[in-house]
Amino acid sequence: MRHLYTFRLIEAVARAGSMRRAAEDMAITASALNRRVRRFEEEFGAELFERLPGGVRLNPAGELLLHHYRASLSDLARVQGQVADLSGERRGHVSIACSQALLPYFLPEQIARYRADHPGVTFGVKVRDRAEAEQELASFASDLALVFEPVYLVDFEVIRIVPQPVVAVMAADHPLARKQELRLRDCLDAPHVAPAVKYGVRHLLDFAARKGSRRVAPIVETESFELIRHYVLHERAVGFQIPIGLRDPGDGSLVFRPIAERDLPAGNLILGQMRGRSLPVAPARFAQRLANALKDYAGGSDP
Amino acid sequence: MRHLYTFRLIEAVARAGSMRRAAEDMAITASALNRRVRRFEEEFGAELFERLPGGVRLNPAGELLLHHYRASLSDLARVQGQVADLSGERRGHVSIACSQALLPYFLPEQIARYRADHPGVTFGVKVRDRAEAEQELASFASDLALVFEPVYLVDFEVIRIVPQPVVAVMAADHPLARKQELRLRDCLDAPHVAPAVKYGVRHLLDFAARKGSRRVAPIVETESFELIRHYVLHERAVGFQIPIGLRDPGDGSLVFRPIAERDLPAGNLILGQMRGRSLPVAPARFAQRLANALKDYAGGSDP
DNA sequence: CCGAGGCGTTGCAATTTGTGCACCGCATCG
DNA sequence: CGATGCGGTGCACAAATTGCAACGCCTCGG
After folding, report:
1. Does B4 sit within 8 Å of A86, measured CB to CB?
2. pTM
3. Mean pLDDT on B19-38
4. Has residue B80 been placed in a domain?
C-alpha cells in the first residue's frame, strides 16, 4: 500500500537501529530515507527517534506512532479481507503464534480442514513460548495465539480456555506403564526428560514438585517436545507433555499415563487475540473453528 | 498528514458524489483526482465507487474503506495527542455533538473551566438532534455526544447517564406559577410552547400526552430552546425544557415548575462516545470531567 | 593524540512521479 | 438531436523525490 511507505521506512529504521542500515534494507539511499523521516517528523510535530552517535533508537513518541501504524495496517488488512469476502471467495491470511504442543497434530489438522473449505486462505505458523506469544499479538505480528499457560495476560483477550493436564509419556515396557494413574513422585523418582523452564509444562512441574519438597531433575532437558516424545523410546525414562500434543503412534510403542490431579493440577491451553482488536475475516472465522475444536479436546487425551 | 491525501480525496469524492465536483473542492484537476482514485483502487484490489451516469457513489467496499480511514485518522489524532502530552503541556482538540439544552450554561461553563487548566486544548461544538448525534460519532466526526434521550444506541457507548425531568417554564406572573408542582394536564390546557417533534423533550411530552388521551397542541412550535425560554416572557404561555438548560435569570421574571413524575417520567441525558473507540487524551479527560459534573446536575435544577 | 570509520545530515543535479490541458466516448435531458 | 455533464485517457510539463558527493560529529583503536 503506497500511502504507508513512510511508515514502512520508519519501521525499518526502528528495526535496523540505524538509518544507513535501514536504507540498505529498503533499497533506498540513506539521504532519501533520512529526509522522509525528518519530513514526517516535522509534519507529525515530534521527533520519533533519539539520535545517538552510532545510530538511532525509537523514543516514546516513535513507539506510539509505530503502534498506530501496525494497528492501522492490521485494520486495513481486515477491511481488504471483508471486501474480498463480499465478492465471492474468501481470501486472506491467518498468522498464529503457538506453543510447540500444537505442532504435530492439532494445528496441521485444523489448518488443513479450514483450507479444504477456503483454499484462498494462507497461513503463517510461528512457534513461540508463552511470553513471546503475547508480544506477537501486541505488535500485530500474529492474529492469534494458542499457548499453554500464558504468563502476563495483558493485551491478551481470551477466546477459549481449555484445561490440559500434564501426562507422563513413556515406552510401553516402562515399569510405570503398568499403573493406570501415576503419582508425581513416581515420575520424579524415575529418570525423566523435561522441557526447558520457559515452557508451561515445566513451570507446572516445578511448582508442583516444590510443593512436595521435591525437585525436577531431568536427565535430559530440552526445548523440543518432539525430542522428548522420541527419547523415551530409547532410554527407560519418563517424559511430560500435554494430551493435545500426543497421539498413539499405533504400534503400541508409546504409552501415556495421567498424573494424579492432586499432585499436579491441570494447566490451561488458551486461544487468544490482541485485546480490543477486530480481526480480519479469515482469522476471526478460523479462531471460531479452533475454539470449537478445542472443546472436543477439553479434559482428555485423544481416544 | 501527507500520506492520507488519497483518502481525503476519496472522501471528497464520496461527499461530492462526482469526481469533477470533488476535484474542484480539493483544488485539483478532475484528471489527476481520477487517476489517484483509479490507482488506489487498483492496488487496493477493488473498486470503491459505482460509476453511474451523472456521477459516482460509494459501493460497500468504499464504505468499508472510508470507515477504516476515519478510524485511522482518529487514532492518529489520539497518538498525536498522547505525544504532545508527554512533552509537557496538553494540546489537542475536543469535538462534541450535543443537544441544544447544553448550550446556554452547562457546556460553556465546562469548556471554560477545562480550558482554564489546559489552554492548549481547542473545542468544537456541534448542535445535533438525538438521531444525528449518533451519526456524528459513527463517522468519527465528533469525539463525544451529549444528548437528551438518544434514539438508536447502536455504536453508542454510554459514559454517563443522568435523569432529567421535563420542567415547565413560564413567566413569574403566570397563573400556574402559584403551584409548586404541576400536573401535565394543567400545562396542556394552558397555551403552551413546545420544541419540534425531533427533540427528546417533545418526544416525552407526546408520549405522556397520548397516554392521558391528550394532545400536545403548541401555540408556537420551534427548533430553538432559546426562543421558548424568551417567548414565555412575552405571552402567558407554558414552555418545556430540562433543568440543565435553565437558570434563574435573577430578576425573578422566569420561573420553573416540576411536572408530576407520574404524569411525565424523567428522560435521560446521556454522555457517550463511539463504541470501542479509544479517545485521544484531551477528549478522554474532558469526558471524565463532564461525567463528574453531570453527577451534580442529576435529578434537579440548579439552585 | 590523531586518523580511520561509522553515523546523521545537507546541496545539487537527475529522474521519477504527479499534474494540467485537451480531448474522447457515453449517457441523459430538454 | 444537439447540449451538457459525466468518467476516463494521451501527452507535455511541473513538482516532488531520489541518488551522489560531501560535511560535521562522535567513537574507538593504534
Report:
1. no
2. 0.84
3. 93
4. no
Number of domains in chain A: 3
Do A150 and A232 lie in a common domain?
Answer: no
Comparing every residue's Cα with the C1' atom of nucleotide D26, the nearest one is: A53
pLDDT digits (tens, 9 = 90+) for A37-77: 999 999 999 999 999 988 999 999 999 999 999 999 999 99
Q: Take residue B164 and report the three cell numbers written for it.
A: 432529567
Decide the pairing of beta strands B55-58 and B49-52: antiparallel
Reported confidence tier of residue B85, pLDDT bands at 50, 70, 90: confident
Q: Are residues A252 and A274 in the same domain?
A: no
Q: Are residues B54 and B195 in the same domain?
A: no
- Region at A238 (left for phi over 0; alpha for psi -120 to 50; beta for the rest): beta
Strands B238-241 and B167-171: antiparallel
pLDDT at A96 over 70: yes
Is B57 found in the same domain as B24? yes
| pLDDT in the model for residue A212 | 86
Nearest CA in chain B to A277: B276
| Domain with A8 in it | 2-65
pLDDT at residue number A155: 87
Domain CATH for B121: 3.40.190.10
Distance CA B257, CA B263 (A): 14
DSSP output for B211-245: HTT-----SEEES-HHHHHHHTTTSS-EEEE-GGG
Alpha-carbon span A38 to A76, nearest angstrom: 25
- Please work out, in degrees rounded to the nearest 5, the angle formed at the alpha carbon of residue A261 by the alpha carbons of A257 and A262: 135
- Say yes or no: A180 and A229 in one domain: yes
**A273 and A147 together in one domain:** yes
Please give the nucleotide, over all strands, whose C1' is closest to the CA of residue B47: D7
Strand D at less than 7 A from CB of A26:
no
Asked if residue B115 belongs to a domain, the reply is yes
Indicate whether A149 and A120 sit together in one domain: yes
Same domain, A274 and A145: yes
Choose the mutation target among A75, A79, A275 for the interface with B, i.e. most B CBs under 10 Å: A79
In a domain, A119, yes or no: yes
CATH of the domain at B176: 3.40.190.290
3-state SS, residue B288: helix
Q: What is the CATH number of the domain that holds B30?
A: 1.10.10.10
Q: Which residue is nearest to nucleotide D25 (CA to C1')?
A: A53
Residue B141: pLDDT above 50? yes
Q: Tens digit of pLDDT for each residue in A248-276?
A: 888 888 999 999 999 999 999 999 999 98
Percent of chain B with pLDDT over 90: 71
Using a 7 Å cut-off to protein CB atoms, list the covered nucleotides of chain D.
Answer: 5-10, 17-22, 25-27
* pLDDT per position as a tens digit, A101-120: 999 889 999 999 999 999 98
